[in-house]
Amino acid sequence: QVRLVESGGGLVQAGGSLRLSCAASGITFGINAMGWYRQGTGNQRELVAGITSGGRTSYADSVKGRFTISRDNAKNTVYLQMNSLKPEDTAVYYCNVATRYNYWGQGTQVTVSS
């Protein structure tokens, strides 16, 4: 059974930092890419950052220069370091793992106060 366990969300003041982690287990196919999405209240889910198995990264324009995605292939874990957080970063953040199938975490709330 595939499990994605997310951690690291919480409440932080604007300008602060948080680090999200997502550990995947039970995956039997090769992982092609891992990423983080977010969904704010009333908004559609959007891609925040992604990283391929080869380490190539991509970011939404709104987080470039502030967020960094990384992964530990041996642990099947992906991280999202979020710095200089803004109130508009407030959302539920979801981990995504892409193999021949698509898997999602349960989501972790990130709230940035002004």
Task: Characterise the protein shown here.
The protein is mostly beta strands and 114 residues long. 0% of the residues lie in helices and 55% in strands. The chain is built from no helices and eleven strands. The chain has strands at 3-7, 10-13, 18-25, 33-39, 46-52, 57-59, 67-72, 77-82, 91-98, 102-104, 108-113. Strands 2, 4, 5, 6, 9, 10 and 11 form a seven-stranded mixed sheet that branches. Strand 9 (91-98) and strand 10 form a beta hairpin. It is globular. The model has no long low-confidence stretch (mean pLDDT 95).
Low-confidence stretches: none
Distance between the termini: 40 Å
**Integer average pLDDT:** 95
Main beta-sheet strand count, sense and barrel state: 7 strands, mixed
Features:
114 residues, mainly beta, seven-stranded mixed sheet, 0% helix
Structure in a nutshell:
The chain is mostly beta strands.
Please give the structural blueprint:
Layout lengths: L2 E5 L2 E4 L4 E8 L7 E7 L6 E7 L4 E3 L7 E6 L4 E6 L8 E8 L3 E3 L3 E6 L1
Parallel strand pairs: 2-11
Antiparallel strand pairs: 1-3, 3-8, 4-5, 4-9, 5-6, 7-8, 9-10, 9-11
